Amino acid sequence: MLECRSLTEPIRRILSKEHGSVKFCKASVSKIDYANRVVHINSNDKVSFDLLVVGIGAENATFGIPGVKEHACFLKELEDAREIRQRVINCIEQASQEQNDTELERKLHMVVVGGGPTGIETAAEMRDFFRNDVQRLFPKLSDKVKVTLVEALPSVLKMFPKGLIEYTESKFLAEHIDILKNTKVKRATETHIEAEVTQPDGSIKTELVPYGVLVWAAGNAVRPVVRDLMDQPPEQASSRRGLLVDEYLRVKVQLGKSHIKKALTLHNFSIKPMQMPGKTWQERNFHHPLNILTKDLLPTLAMVVRSQIYQFSARICPLLEH
């Protein structure tokens, strides 16, 4: 597990190279007033805008499951990474002094909920950490550490090709990472999760899974600021998972009369839809932010976002220059 300083880059150091052309404001956004082109930030201050780029990400979806917010670790912010690291270290330190075999087994059991890309990568990184660092510092405990991935659906990585799913499961098997599929978490406590497991015959069995550290990577939810923005333009009324955008990554809204001139200026530029070579995600190419052929959202992976950022930047820079 990396130190946080290895994962962050001070924004002011980057902006200092722009010689004052960019202003950085550290603040929390409380509301976006689309009609008046104003962003409300903390302390009741306002920032007006002509063009607004919304890229604040999502928050964790806990689906109202009791105990998840209180006892699980998440994977959204820098503080989340610090907390996971500290909890893992604490569990290992406590386990090194533990005399009770049951408690020893629990403290060395790391459970990751969510079989998407985030959960898969987290479970794999944990296994690497235990195999390398823990084996070196706590050689007597390294063979007792256990990592389990919990997924509510019959398969992990449901949005990926079958071959990749099978490859992932085979690698997890080789690395001794357990996968509990068809397992829905119903409640979380400080020491275990309560889950309903669908059996091959369709019956439901309740099981308790003890853990030392619980990491929740089971889905994303829209942040309140974005949810409020979605309620403003009527074009967003049908949206449930986030802001609706077109193939240019522009939010779908009807421009008011005061913004017709800017809209005409926008269309004077030679802007093409976001696209890359290829047809569908199944062919491992990114057609554009929304897969038009299948109407499915592309997975929220860094490689998808990187493609969108490069293409989006190439289109917005000419607008800013004018």
Structural overview:
Its EC number is 1.6.5.9. This is NADH:ubiquinone reductase (non-electrogenic). Keywords: FAD, Flavoprotein, NAD, Oxidoreductase. The protein has 322 residues and is an alpha/beta fold. The chain has 2 domains: 68-220, 3-Layer(bba) Sandwich (FAD/NAD(P)-binding domain); 245-322, no CATH class. It has 9 helices and 14 strands. It has helices at residues 11-15, 68-71, 78-97, 101-107, 117-137, 162-174, 224-230, 260-267, 302-321, and strands spanning 29-33, 38-41, 45-48, 59-60, 109-113, 146-150, 177-180, 183-188, 192-198, 204-210, 213-216, 220-221, 290-291, 296-297. Strands 7-6-5-11 form a 4-stranded parallel sheet. A 3-stranded antiparallel sheet has the order 1-2-3. A hairpin with a 3-residue loop joins strand 2 (38-41) and strand 3 (45-48). Helix 3 runs antiparallel to helix 4. The longest helix is centred in the middle third of the chain and has 21 residues, at 117-137. Mean pLDDT is 83; it is low at 257-295.
Largest sheet: 4 strands, parallel
Strands of the widest sheet, in order across it, are 7-6-5-11
Topology order in helix (H) and strand (E) letters? HEEEEHHHEHEHEEEEEEHHEEH
* Average residue pLDDT: 83
How many helices in DSSP terms? 9
Distance between the ends = 45 Å
Helix content: 25-40%
Uncertain stretches: 257-295
The structure class reads alpha/beta
- Got a strand count? 14
Q: How many domain units?
A: 2
Strand content: 15-25%
